[in-house]
Design brief:
The complex is a heterodimer.
Chain A: E1 3-10, E2 19-26, H1 31-39, H2 52-55, E3 57-65, E4 68-81, E5 87-95, H3 98-103, H4 106-111, E6 125-127, H5 144-150, H6 155-165, E7 170-174, H7 180-188, E8 201-202, E9 216-220, H8 224-227, E10 236-238, H9 251-258, H10 261-268, H11 291-301, H12 303-315, H13 319-335, H14 337-361
Parallel strand pairs in A: 2-6, 7-9, 7-10, 8-9
Antiparallel strand pairs in A: 1-2, 1-5, 3-4, 3-8, 4-5
Chain B: H1 2-17, E1 32-33, E2 40-41, E3 47-49, E4 56-58, E5 62-66, E6 68-69, E7 80-81, E8 87-88, E9 91-92, E10 99-100, E11 109-116, H2 122-135, H3 137-140, E12 142-146, H4 153-163, E13 186-191, E14 194-199, E15 202-208, H5 213-218, E16 232-238, E17 264-269, H6 275-280, H7 293-307, E18 320-324, H8 327-330, H9 351-368, H10 370-379, E19 383-387, E20 409-410, E21 414-415, H11 427-432, H12 434-442
Parallel strand pairs in B: 11-16, 11-17, 17-18, 18-19
Antiparallel strand pairs in B: 1-2, 3-6, 3-9, 4-5, 7-8, 9-10, 12-15, 13-14, 15-16, 20-21
Helix pairs in contact in B: 2-4, 7-10, 9-10
The chains are: A alpha/beta, B alpha+beta.
């Protein structure tokens, strides 16, 4: 049976309060579960010219409630005006059981608008429940949305790799007007069905580290919350930069680009097969960027220049010595030693000037 | 020669006296209250926020926050150095590790809670009152500035919507305050292994005794100095009304515990949500938005009593400023004139005008909402009643919610910034400020 809860602004809620309150829930739902789901109901403010669709938050989260872990699908969307004439939102949560997990996947369920309430009509009341239909994303299609948004569907494989390595969840910045839920659904299609329920996500910002945090947030580049964080933070990723700078070349990336057809082609060419099961390694914390890493990157990028320098030194006999002196000078300049020389020079000059002035006056 | 030596010594003296090593020591508060989790601590326990970009992740504040640490190394200016040697100036609470302004350990703070039922107009009132005190320092005899602008981002958003484009005829509206999920309103911290959602306060530096209008007019621009005497911090809280409803005080979401520290409570009473008040002043029905505001008030003061561990029989002396919001919608019908604001020509509150207004509104409330006035009498021994219109007379009408539906307003759609003229908006805040609270007591205004 479906366990669900609707949270919106009403003049009188199911528990007696007004304003944002429980409008409907499956009969017999424990109070602790009702409170836990209510806490997930907030909708973060969007940027000023966001469309209605862009404001919608779809999420698959896992929350702790009375000692057990709940798998919760949520769709939180603006919903006209409330009883006070102010903008309202409607949060619809569904707690997913083992049966649904065995035959559907979260993004496909969220993509089916018919399963989610768009508005609440009438007074608060208890809901009778029902059965969720099976919804499963295709896993044999190329990732067209990824290709359209990022120019290469293979980046989905890189993002999956980043998520697996991250211990705290990541934000993926996506271009304006992106279909964020579709991106999530296509990303899931790279995984076997059962593992898709280990992949928590949200299509609007959810603070990493909180009890309702997710493995990946698809964050529009115009999100106001994005501006509040340092864009160089280790948990904010952009395609084309940092860990997602290079175009991926692995087999999973090939599958993202060409779908299952790619495997058949490769099989004929006796190429290595794509792994059937993506191995989920236990989360490990991404190491913070350190100076050594940065130095390593700069060394890698400086390789062609080095080779030019080397060829240059072959043609000039005194070249290495000159370069060495230049390096010492540059190192001392960047370390700030020259400042002390300058200060010492000024002090000596001032003392000399003072001595000369004193001698002249006497 | 003598002149040269004298100049040299003077310049040496000047450079020494202005050098950080020889600066006068700062006077710090003995105890500081965290504005988010309310725990009390000594300034020496304050944690610093690491500045080095590599020190990301804190076990309590969260993996996305910079590390909080108790400093052991300082630079010559007294600023803490983080483990990577970066100079740190931002500070955080030792318990919840949420950042707060450094000024809180240097200046006294007055906590003021703005309370009210859902849809009573708290957010509009806050935006209008702070905007008023930013602008009208001569008239109000005081002014406020953001202590840390970054921490008041949510209020700036509301102020910009209402007052950012004064000539605009585009209809705007403030969003309904969320109960969770708004990163500008709440922060989640993992305290002792348990997630707690805590409120982010609005913090201002208040300068009392600002110059009068004549002083400002007669002085040059570069001579106008902020009033340095009487500076203190004002800590305001804007909660969703749902948080004040009975049963909403959860340990996992202790967002109203600031009531225990409040120097004064501003209770926003919305007369348009009370059917008997509407009937008494001849207003039409508002579509069924009838809320028991007396229960919200009783619940508020029950929480104050619980969190202050006060005996049930003890009377609370927390000043209660009762703000009758949306005066644009009901003042004409009730024969109340809010066009003249209670300020003295020389600046500051006119207590006589305040007293007169209090005496006018009290019988109106006693007659229309006796149960509410009973709750008021039981709540606090010090009460002051003032009207307020956060949007002004152009926003008159008979609509529920925060905005009216008159000339500048479409029902439920918002308000035109060009027609916003707040009335009595800053009065409640001025009356609740520490020095004014004492002054009002001396003027025997509390009833």
């Amino acid at each position: 049976m479906i366990v669900e809860l609707i949270h919106t602004s009403l003049a009188r809620g199911l528990d007696g309060g007004s304003g944002y309150t429980v409008a409907g829930r499956t009969g017999g739902m424990p109070a602790a579960m009702s409170e836990a789901l209510s806490r997930l109901s907030g909708l973060p403010p969007a940027w000023s010219d966001a469309t209605l669709e862009e404001k919608i938050l779809c999420a698959f989260r896992r929350v702790e409630c009375a000692g057990q872990s709940l798998s919760v699908l949520s769709r939180i969307a603006p919903s006209g005006m409330d009883y006070t004439g102010r903008a309202n939102r409607l949060s619809h949560h569904r707690v997913i059981d083992a049966r649904v997990m065995s035959e559907s996947d979260p993004a496909a369920l969220l993509e089916d608008d018919a399963l989610w309430r768009q508005e609440w009509v009438g007074a608060a009341r208890e809901l009778s429940g029902g059965i969720l239909p099976v919804r499963l994303a295709r896993d044999d299609a190329p990732l067209h949305t990824w290709e359209r948004e990022f120019g290469d569907a293979g980046f989905a494989a890189s993002v999956l790799d980043v998520i697996m390595k991250s211990g705290m969840g990541v934000w993926l910045v996506v271009p304006a007007m992106s279909k964020r839920l579709r991106l999530a659904a296509e990303l899931m299609s790279l995984m076997p069905q059962k593992q898709r329920w280990q992949f928590t996500f949200a299509t609007r910002p959810v603070a990493p580290g909180s009890e309702s945090s997710v493995k990946i947030c698809f964050v529009d580049e115009r999100e106001p919350e994005l501006a509040a964080h340092n864009s160089a933070s280790a948990w904010i990723f952009r395609v084309g930069a940092g860990a997602l700078a290079a175009r991926p070349t692995g087999e999973l990336a090939q599958r993202a680009r060409h779908g299952r057809d790619h495997e058949h082609v490769n099989a004929n060419q006796s190429a290595p097969k794509v792994r059937e099961n993506i191995q989920w390694s236990p989360p490990t914390t991404l190491p913070a960027t350190r100076e050594q890493d940065v130095a390593g990157i700069s060394q890698t990028s400086a390789k062609p220049r080095q080779s030019i320098d080397q060829t240059h030194t072959h043609t000039h006999t005194h070249g290495p010595v000159v370069i060495q002196v230049r390096r010492v000078a540059m190192a001392s300049a960047s370390s700030g030693v020259w400042k002390w020389f300058a200060v010492a020079f000024i002090v000596i000059a001032a003392l000399l000037w003072f001595a000369v002035q004193s001698g002249g006056a006497s | 020669m003598r002149v040269g030596v004298y100049d040299w010594f003077m310049s040496l003296h000047l450079s020494l006296t202005t050098h950080p090593l020889f600066r006068e020591s700062r006077v710090l508060m003995e105890r500081v209250h965290c504005p988010s989790c309310r725990v009390s601590f000594a300034p020496s326990e304050v944690l610093f926020v690491a500045e080095d970009a590599r020190l990301v992740g804190d076990p309590v504040a969260g993996p996305t926050q910079q590390l909080r640490f108790l400093p052991t190394r300082f630079d010559v200016g007294g600023a803490a150095l983080d483990p990577e040697g970066a100079r740190c100036t931002r500070v955080a609470c030792p318990r919840c590790r949420i950042e707060f302004p450094r000024a809180m350990i240097e200046l006294p703070s007055a906590f003021i809670s703005v309370v009210g039922a859902p849809g009573s107009g708290k957010s509009h009132l806050l935006a209008a009152m702070t905007w008023g005190l930013r602008r009208e320092r001569a008239r109000a005899g005081a002014f406020m500035v953001d202590t840390e602008p970054k921490l008041n981002a949510r209020l700036h958003r509301d102020e910009n919507i209402l007052f950012g484009a004064p000539d605009s005829n585009e209809i705007v509206r403030l969003a309904k305050t969320e109960i969770a999920g708004d990163a500008l309103l709440y922060r989640t911290a993992c305290v002792k292994g348990k997630d707690e959602t805590l409120p982010l306060p609005l913090i201002f530096t208040l300068h009392l005794g600002a110059q009068s209008a004549e002083d400002i007019a007669s002085s040059q621009l570069d001579n106008i100095q902020p009033a340095t005497h009487g500076a203190s911090l004002v800590v305001l809280y804007d909660n969703a009304g749902e948080h004040f409803l009975p049963g909403a005080d959860e340990s996992a979401q202790p967002v109203t515990r600031h009531l225990s520290q409040s120097r004064a409570i501003v209770f926003v009473f919305d007369p348009t949500q009370d059917p008997r008040f509407r009937a008494a002043v001849g207003m039409s029905e508002n579509g069924g938005a009838n809320i028991r505001q007396d229960l919200v008030l009783t619940e508020t003061f029950a929480r104050v009593r619980h969190h202050r561990s006060r005996h049930a029989a003890d009377s609370l002396d927390v000043p209660l400023i009762l703000v009758l919001s949306k005066a644009d919608a009901w003042s004409k019908a009730a024969n109340i004139d809010v066009s003249v604001e209670p300020y003295l020509p020389s600046g500051g509150l006119d207590f006589a005008a305040l007293k007169k207004m209090d005496r006018t509104l009290r019988p109106l409330l006693e007659g229309a909402c006796p149960e509410f006035m009973t709750a008021v009498r039981a709540a606090s021994s010090r009460v002051l009643i003032v009207p307020c219109s956060a949007l002004g007379p152009c926003a008159t009408g008979d609509v529920g919610g925060d905005v009216g539906a008159g000339v500048g307003v479409t029902r439920g759609a918002g308000v035109r910034p060009s027609q916003i003229r707040p009335q009595w908006a800053s009065v409640a805040l001025l009356a609740s400020l520490p020095l004014e609270v004492d002054a009002i007591q001396n003027a025997s205004l509390w009833t």
